[in-house]
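Sequence in, structure out. Go.
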Amino acid sequence: MALERLAQDILASAESEAGDIIAEAKKEAKAILDEAKSRAKSILDSSESQSNKEANQISKEIVASARQSNQKEILVAQKTELDLAYEMAKTKLSDASLKGRASLLKHLLSEAKKVGEGKMVLRPTTIDRSALEDASKDYSIGEEVDGMGGFILEAADGSISFDYRFDGLLEEAWSSLLPKITGELF
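Output:
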C-alpha cells in the first residue's frame, strides 16, 4: 500500500507539475503570440504608411507629368499657330497685288535716300523690278536679288549695302512684335 500511495503521490506531483508546465507554456505561447501579433500589426502599419507615401508620391508625379505634357502640347500648338501666321504674312508680302505695295516701295526708297550717298546701285527683287525701275530714277538698276519684295541698295564698288527686302523687314518686325502677336493670338 505504501507503494501505491507513493505512486499516487508521484502521479499527483507529476500531474501538478505538468499542469504548471502546461499553464506556463500556455502563458508563454500567449505572450509569444501577442508579441507576434504586435509585430505583425507594426509591420502592417509601417507597410501601409510606406505604401500610402509612395502612392501619394506617384500620384504627384503623375499629375506633374500630365501638366508638363499638357503644357508641351499647348506650346507645340502655339508654335504651330505662330508658324502659320508667319507663313501667311510671307505669302501676303510675296503677292504682287498686295494693297499698298507701291507706297511701301516708295517709302523704302525715301528711307534709302537718307542712307545712300554717292553712286549707288539698286538691286531689285524680281517681283518689284518694274515698279522700282519706274520709281527710282536716282539709282542705276543692278541685277535682281531673291526675296519677297523690295531691294538691296549697295555702293557701286560693293563696299556697303543696305537691305530693304521684305524678307529681312518682316523678320525684324516679327521678332520685335512677337510678344504682342503672341498676346493677340493666345
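Check: The chain has four helices and four strands. The CA atoms of residues 127 and 149 lie 6 Å apart.
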